[in-house]
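The data are quoted verbatim here:
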Amino acid sequence: MPFKNILKALVDRIPGSIGAILVDWEGEAVQEYCHCDPYDMRFVAAHEGIILARLKELHSSGPVGQVNDVIITASDCHLIIGCIDDDYSLVMHVDRSCPASLALHHFRNAVLELKKEI
Protein backbone atom coordinates (compact mmCIF):
# COMPACT_ATOMS: atom_id res chain seq x y z
CA MET A 1 0.00 0.00 0.00
CA PRO A 2 1.49 3.36 -1.01
CA PHE A 3 0.24 5.15 2.12
CA LYS A 4 2.35 3.00 4.43
CA ASN A 5 5.44 3.48 2.23
CA ILE A 6 5.02 7.26 2.32
CA LEU A 7 4.54 7.30 6.09
CA LYS A 8 7.48 4.96 6.67
CA ALA A 9 9.76 7.12 4.51
CA LEU A 10 8.62 10.23 6.38
CA VAL A 11 9.20 8.77 9.84
CA ASP A 12 12.50 7.16 8.90
CA ARG A 13 14.03 10.33 7.45
CA ILE A 14 13.37 12.54 10.49
CA PRO A 15 15.62 12.03 13.53
CA GLY A 16 13.54 11.73 16.67
CA SER A 17 10.36 10.93 14.80
CA ILE A 18 7.90 8.88 16.82
CA GLY A 19 5.27 8.28 14.16
CA ALA A 20 2.89 9.53 11.52
CA ILE A 21 -0.73 8.68 10.84
CA LEU A 22 -3.17 9.34 8.03
CA VAL A 23 -6.69 9.98 9.34
CA ASP A 24 -10.08 10.59 7.78
CA TRP A 25 -12.58 13.38 8.50
CA GLU A 26 -13.83 11.60 11.63
CA GLY A 27 -10.36 11.13 13.12
CA GLU A 28 -10.33 7.43 12.24
CA ALA A 29 -6.97 5.92 11.32
CA VAL A 30 -6.48 5.01 7.68
CA GLN A 31 -2.81 4.04 8.00
CA GLU A 32 -0.05 4.65 10.50
CA TYR A 33 3.64 4.00 10.84
CA CYS A 34 5.23 4.51 14.23
CA HIS A 35 7.91 3.54 16.72
CA CYS A 36 5.37 3.32 19.53
CA ASP A 37 2.13 1.52 20.28
CA PRO A 38 -0.17 2.16 17.27
CA TYR A 39 -3.03 2.80 19.70
CA ASP A 40 -1.10 5.79 21.06
CA MET A 41 -0.79 7.25 17.56
CA ARG A 42 -4.50 6.71 16.88
CA PHE A 43 -5.38 8.39 20.17
CA VAL A 44 -3.22 11.41 19.42
CA ALA A 45 -4.55 11.65 15.85
CA ALA A 46 -8.19 11.57 16.92
CA HIS A 47 -7.66 14.48 19.27
CA GLU A 48 -5.49 16.46 16.88
CA GLY A 49 -8.24 16.15 14.27
CA ILE A 50 -10.45 18.18 16.57
CA ILE A 51 -7.83 20.93 16.71
CA LEU A 52 -7.49 20.96 12.93
CA ALA A 53 -11.27 21.16 12.50
CA ARG A 54 -11.40 24.20 14.81
CA LEU A 55 -8.59 25.90 12.91
CA LYS A 56 -10.40 25.27 9.63
CA GLU A 57 -13.42 27.04 11.14
CA LEU A 58 -11.25 30.17 11.46
CA HIS A 59 -10.92 30.15 7.69
CA SER A 60 -14.67 30.34 7.24
CA SER A 61 -15.21 33.01 9.89
CA GLY A 62 -12.58 35.56 8.93
CA PRO A 63 -9.71 36.66 6.70
CA VAL A 64 -7.20 34.13 8.04
CA GLY A 65 -6.77 32.20 4.82
CA GLN A 66 -6.86 28.47 4.30
CA VAL A 67 -5.21 26.40 7.04
CA ASN A 68 -2.65 24.00 5.58
CA ASP A 69 -0.75 22.80 8.64
CA VAL A 70 0.05 23.66 12.22
CA ILE A 71 2.81 22.77 14.67
CA ILE A 72 2.03 22.34 18.35
CA THR A 73 5.12 22.37 20.53
CA ALA A 74 4.79 20.72 23.92
CA SER A 75 7.39 20.23 26.62
CA ASP A 76 8.71 17.00 25.11
CA CYS A 77 7.47 16.87 21.51
CA HIS A 78 6.21 18.59 18.40
CA LEU A 79 2.87 17.58 16.91
CA ILE A 80 2.43 18.50 13.26
CA ILE A 81 -1.05 18.40 11.78
CA GLY A 82 -1.76 19.06 8.12
CA CYS A 83 -4.59 18.91 5.61
CA ILE A 84 -4.31 16.61 2.64
CA ASP A 85 -7.77 17.49 1.35
CA ASP A 86 -11.20 18.17 2.85
CA ASP A 87 -11.52 14.57 4.04
CA TYR A 88 -8.02 13.50 5.09
CA SER A 89 -5.22 14.83 7.25
CA LEU A 90 -1.77 13.79 8.36
CA VAL A 91 -0.57 13.87 11.96
CA MET A 92 3.05 13.46 12.98
CA HIS A 93 4.59 13.13 16.43
CA VAL A 94 8.26 14.15 16.72
CA ASP A 95 10.59 14.36 19.71
CA ARG A 96 11.29 17.93 20.84
CA SER A 97 15.01 17.46 20.07
CA CYS A 98 14.22 17.43 16.34
CA PRO A 99 14.22 20.88 14.71
CA ALA A 100 10.61 21.70 13.90
CA SER A 101 11.59 23.27 10.57
CA LEU A 102 13.25 20.04 9.40
CA ALA A 103 10.23 17.97 10.41
CA LEU A 104 7.84 20.43 8.74
CA HIS A 105 9.83 20.37 5.49
CA HIS A 106 9.60 16.58 5.21
CA PHE A 107 6.00 16.61 6.47
CA ARG A 108 4.91 18.96 3.68
CA ASN A 109 6.64 16.80 1.08
CA ALA A 110 4.77 13.76 2.42
CA VAL A 111 1.47 15.65 2.20
CA LEU A 112 2.17 16.33 -1.48
CA GLU A 113 2.88 12.63 -2.06
CA LEU A 114 -0.28 11.61 -0.23
CA LYS A 115 -2.36 14.06 -2.29
CA LYS A 116 -1.26 12.20 -5.42
CA GLU A 117 -2.43 8.89 -3.95
CA ILE A 118 -5.81 10.00 -2.61
